[in-house]
Structures are given as structure tokens and as C-alpha cells.
């Protein structure tokens, strides 16, 4: 299979063009995503169609450079129209994008239909700009796309700080005297260039995905804008090459849609597996937190059961412990096993009791709970009979430094909201043998 690819120069043209598209659109799409302008690429792509038609109508040329010049002019005009609507009217951005998209795309369809009846337009292939025709790329087209991509990425590198300021704090940039309106026009122009790069490869309809998917995928893996831009460009290029290779595996597999599907696949993997934001890891952290809550609640219950007589060596059966919170006995048994493996519980026949380290951990949980209850009652003026549930949720997440600060703010109290003693740090009441 790889030998067949090596003997197919057209595949490498398509792969190179797709990689250029993915690299440029992924890097520039980061700013559209961060500025919540994800639909801007869709509007610009649709706005480019009448420019393609007009360029052919006026010149009669099928040259990609001529057609892309017309697309660039029309898309840039559409972008300026969006900015003008936002500044000159009270319309929201989604309404402005909808207006530009529908008007330009409607005009493009009318021109395309009219051109199809002209004798010199029968073989122009203008309709291919709707869904892309990456397989038609030739070395001359690749040089045009490469020049546009290089120019766009060079401007991005030179103006990166300004674009970063625009994305995160436009008002601060204006206060510094930066020409934020001009910077916005430059960034929008670069987005137009990225859209133009994709017209031949993925087409008007699918181009928005190439701006959004790699950028959103990259965002899942990092909090740094610089790394996000580099990663989005890399993921976009990878998607482009993957789509080109997949399209070569069969005789009737369209390249453009496969590129978009590859980018969507990368996005799906990122949404699922990214360490900090991935759904799988979020599920795993939630599962681990729930198990922690069950363990700590059971320790706290054992502590409270032994608190009246200060006898924490007393053993209790699973059924009795399950009845404290109305939990299934089977779940309580599993939690008891987890606590035993941690060395916090020991078996006494069919019952269970706290070990020395288990008592220390149980005392920490109860201390966190009662300090937070007291803080809610004293500082937030909540009724004492309304603070228990909130404290139950917070006691499992309070770090030691926060607990120490609560203790200081409350004056190192010895009793809680309901008059129960608050365990002190270092207190020793080890269970008797």
C-alpha cells in the first residue's frame, strides 16, 4: 500500500495541500474560537462563493489564482460587512453572521446557476467549490496555496501579541493606545485567507469545521495560547494528511469530507481523553471523588458513633452502619473493604472498628465538617439547621491551609454549631485495645 502511495504523485499534491489547509486554519481558528466567533468561518466561506463566480464571469479564466482572488475579495467584503453591522447597529453577532451568510450564499447560488448555462462555463468546475475537489490539485495550485499559507502564518507570528490582546482583553489593549479596530481587521483578513485555502480542498459547506475542530481539540490539551496555536496547526495538518490518505484507499471516497471527518475524529479523541478536560478523565475523577466521599462519610459515622462515650474502639456491623445514612449494605461492605486496605479499619469478627490511623483520618473529616458549619452560621448568617448539608459537601474538598484559615478566622473554637466538640489538631484519643 505504501508503495502505491509512493508511486502516486497526485496523492502527495493532495496531501501537501490538505496539510497546508489544516495547518493554517487550525492555527488561525484558535482566535476565532477564543473570541467566540466560531461561526465567522462559516459565514466567510459562504460569502466567498459569489466572488468565485464573478471572477470567472469577468475573466473567463479557470485559473485557481484568479478564482481565489475573487473569493478573497468577496469573503473580505463579507467580513467587513459583519464588522460594520456590529458597530453600526444593535444587532448581535449571530444575526450579523446570519445576514451575511444568507445574502452572499444566496447571491452565489444565483450566479452559479446562471453561469452553468453559459457555453464557456460547462467545464469550469465552479460547482466543485461547494464541496471541494482536492483530487484536482496540481503543482501550480499548490504553489498558490503555499504562498497564501506562508503569508498568513508569517503575519500571525509577527502580530501574535496583538492578536492575543484582542482575544483576551480588547478594552485593555484600547486603553494602552493600541489600534484594536485595525488589529481586528487584520485578524479577520487572515481568517479570510484561511477560508480561501480550504475552498478547493473541502469547499464552502465544510470549511467551518477546519477552523473550529482543530482549535477546539487543541484547547482540551493546554491552557497556553502559544501551545494551543502550535498544537491546533499540527492537528489540522494531521487531519488533512489523514483525509488525503484515506481518500486514496478507495475509488469513490471524497477527500474533503474525509478531511473533515478526520478532524472531527481528532476532536472526539481530545474531548474524551485530554487529561484535564477529557470526558473519560472527568468521569474517572468523579468516580474517585464519590468513592472518597463514601470512605470519609463512613469514617465520620464511626467517629460520631463512638463520640458519646469517647470509645472509638467499639466495633459496628455493616447493617448498623448502612442504617446511619440509609445506604445499601453491599455498598457499605465494599467501602469497609477499601478502608481496611488503607489501614483505617480492622475487623472484629463480623464487625469493624477504627484503627489508630483511621481515628486520625476520621477526626480530620469531622473537624472539617464542624468548622465549615460554624463558618456558615457565623459569617454567612445561615440558620444552624441549614448548614449541615452544605458542610457535608465541602468537608471532602477543603485543603489543610483553608482549614487552618477557617480555624483562625473563627478564633480556634472548641465547640461547633450544635454544641458538639470540634477535634483539635494533634489530639490523641487512640482506641483502646
Key terms:
433 residues; mainly alpha; ABC transporter involved in vitamin B12 uptake, BtuC; Arc Repressor Mutant, subunit A; 2 domains; two-stranded antiparallel ribbon; elongated
Percent of residues in helical segments? over 70%
Query: In order across it, which strands form the biggest sheet?
Result: 1-2
Poorly predicted spans: none
How many angstroms separate the termini? 73 Å
Number of domains: 2
Total of DSSP H or I helical runs spanning 4+ residues: 19
Reported by name, the CATH topology of the largest domain is ABC transporter involved in vitamin B12 uptake, BtuC
What is the strand tally? 2
Strand content: under 5%
Q: Mind telling me the CATH superfamily name of the largest domain? A: ABC transporter involved in vitamin B12 uptake, BtuC
Averaged pLDDT? 86
CATH structural architecture of the largest domain: Orthogonal Bundle
Structural class: mainly alpha
| Morphology call | elongated
Order of helices and strands: HHHHHHHHHHHHHHHHEEHHH
Rg (CA only): 32 Å
Biggest sheet features: 2 strands, antiparallel
CATH class of the largest domain, please? Mainly Alpha
List the helices and strands and how they pair.
Blueprint lengths: L1 H5 L2 H26 L5 H20 L4 H25 L4 H23 L12 H4 L7 H20 L1 H9 L1 H6 L4 H20 L3 H17 L5 H23 L7 H19 L5 H28 L11 H8 L3 H13 L3 E4 L2 E4 L1 H24 L8 H7 L5 H10 L24
Antiparallel strand pairs: 1-2
Helix pairs in contact: 2-7, 2-10, 2-11, 2-12, 3-4, 3-5, 3-10, 3-11, 4-5, 4-10, 7-10, 10-11, 11-12, 11-13, 12-13, 14-16, 14-17, 15-16, 17-18
Amino acid at each position: 500500500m505504501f508503495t502505491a502511495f509512493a508511486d502516486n504523485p497526485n496523492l502527495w499534491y493532495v496531501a501537501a495541500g490538505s496539510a497546508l489547509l489544516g495547518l493554517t486554519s487550525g492555527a488561525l481558528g484558535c482566535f476565532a474560537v477564543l473570541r467566540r466567533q466560531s461561526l465567522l468561518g462559516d459565514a466567510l466561506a459562504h460569502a466567498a462563493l459569489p466572488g468565485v463566480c464573478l471572477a470567472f464571469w469577468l475573466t473567463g479564466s479557470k485559473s485557481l489564482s484568479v478564482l481565489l482572488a475573487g473569493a478573497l475579495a468577496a469573503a473580505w467584503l463579507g467580513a467587513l460587512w459583519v464588522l460594520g453591522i456590529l458597530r453600526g447597529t444593535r444587532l448581535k453577532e449571530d444575526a450579523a453572521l446570519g445576514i451575511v451568510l444568507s445574502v452572499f450564499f444566496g447571491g452565489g447560488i444565483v450566479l452559479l446557476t446562471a453561469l452553468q448555462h453559459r457555453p464557456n462555463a460547462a467545464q469550469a468546475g465552479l460547482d466543485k467549490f461547494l464541496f471541494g475537489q482536492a483530487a484536482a490539485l496540481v503543482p501550480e495550485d499548490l504553489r498558490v496555496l503555499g504562498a497564501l499559507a506562508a503569508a498568513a502564518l508569517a503575519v500571525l507570528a509577527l502580530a501574535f501579541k496583538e492578536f492575543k490582546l484582542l482575544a483576551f482583553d480588547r478594552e485593555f489593549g484600547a486603553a494602552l493606545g493600541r489600534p484594536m479596530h485595525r488589529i481586528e481587521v487584520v485578524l479577520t483578513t487572515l481568517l479570510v485567507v484561511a477560508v480561501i485555502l480550504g475552498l478547493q480542498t473541502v469547499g464552502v459547506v465544510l470549511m467551518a469545521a477546519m477552523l473550529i475542530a482543530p482549535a477546539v481539540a487543541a484547547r482540551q490539551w493546554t491552557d497556553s495560547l502559544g501551545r494551543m496555536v502550535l498544537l491546533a496547526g499540527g492537528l489540522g495538518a494531521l487531519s488533512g494528511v489523514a483525509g488525503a490518505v484515506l481518500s486514496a484507499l478507495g475509488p469513490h471516497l471524497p477527500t474533503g469530507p474525509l478531511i473533515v471527518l478526520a478532524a472531527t475524529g481528532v476532536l472526539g479523541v481530545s474531548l474524551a481523553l485530554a487529561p484535564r478536560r477529557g470526558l473519560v478523565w472527568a468521569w474517572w475523577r468523579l468516580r474517585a471523588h464519590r468513592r472518597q466521599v463514601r470512605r470519609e462519610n463512613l469514617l465520620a459515622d464511626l467517629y460520631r458513633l463512638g463520640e458519646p462515650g469517647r470509645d472509638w474502639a467499639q466495633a459496628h456491623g455493616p447493617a448498623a452502619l448502612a442504617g446511619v445514612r440509609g445506604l445499601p449494605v453491599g455498598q457499605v461492605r465494599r467501602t469497609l473493604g477499601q478502608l481496611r486496605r488503607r489501614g483505617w479499619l480492622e475487623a472484629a469478627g463480623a464487625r469493624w472498628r477504627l484503627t489508630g490511623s483511621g481515628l486520625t483520618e476520621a477526626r480530620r473529616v469531622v473537624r472539617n465538617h464542624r468548622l465549615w458549619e460554624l463558618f456558615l452560621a457565623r459569617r454567612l448568617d445561615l440558620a444552624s439547621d441549614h448548614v449541615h448539608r452544605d458542610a457535608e459537601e465541602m468537608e471532602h474538598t477543603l485543603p489543610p491551609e483553608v482549614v487552618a484559615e477557617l480555624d483562625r478566622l473563627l478564633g480556634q473554637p472548641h465547640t461547633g454549631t450544635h454544641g458538639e466538640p470540634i477535634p483539635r489538631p494533634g489530639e490523641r484519643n487512640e482506641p483502646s485495645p
